[in-house]
Amino acid sequence: EAGVAQSPRYKIIEKRQSVAFWCNPISGHATLYWYQQILGQGPKLLIQFQNNGVVDDSQLPKDRFSAERLKGVDSTLKIQPAKLEDSAVYLCASSLDTGSLGANVLTFGAGSRLTVL
Amino acid sequence: GESVGLHLPTLSVQEGDNSIINCAYSNSASDYFIWYKQESGKGPQFIIDIRSNMDKRQGQRVTVLLNKTVKHLSLQIAATQPGDSAVYFCAENIWGGGADGLTFGKGTHLIIQP
Question: How many angstroms away from the CA of B70 is the closest CA of chain A?
């Protein structure tokens, strides 16, 4: 089974520039998540999609962050304009629908490391 | 603030010994817990999970213990190997709560001494 694919793996930008990250979840996984992981901390949920609908975006800084999953498969996370504090690893994860044992298990991609200078 | 945290940022153990990583959570409504392992440069990898109707669950070389009375979770790794070196996170959620994104703690860095 192919894992969660993310790109790019690394990105360096200057503050106030924009950046976009792409995620392709595991085939058949209806739920997709974006997490932000700052160095030395645990991942923090930014947004959760169920198919192409948003389930939870309460922690997404909507003034600069946006995400979409138009066809219910791939997703894009965008930051515009970037700030220094956005330097982090952006992790994408996917899971099966909830309701069955193990369905809440999130499978993570390797992440996209962003450095904002 | 975070509803899940860990007692120690770093744990150093001898190769072959057993490791115990602890986690405290504060949300009494949480009823589903997962341990993840994260190696350098990689995303978190699922290790084992447990629901609140259980107090112990075993996997291959790993055991998770849940004490709901004191809201404490632990991960035991038997016969620790060099490949176990990583940061370990506990995460929690409310089963069937709709929005099921996990809440992670800060992590414990497990270091294996030869």
Answer: 22
pLDDT at A98: 55
| CB pair distance less than 8 Å for B102 and A45 | yes
Interchain CB distance below 8 Å, A108 and B45:
yes
Distance, first Cα to last Cα, chain A? 37
- Does the structure show a pLDDT above 60 at A92? yes
Choices 3.30.420.40, 2.60.40.10, 3.60.15.10, 3.40.50.2300: CATH for A5-116 = 2.60.40.10
pLDDT in tens, A77-88: 999 999 999 999
List B110's β-bridge partners, or say none: B11, B86
Q: Which residues of A touch B89 (CB under 8 A)?
A: 42-43
Mean pLDDT score across all residues of chain A: 92
8 Å CB contact of B41 and A110: yes
**Which sequence spans correspond to the domains of chain B?**
4-113
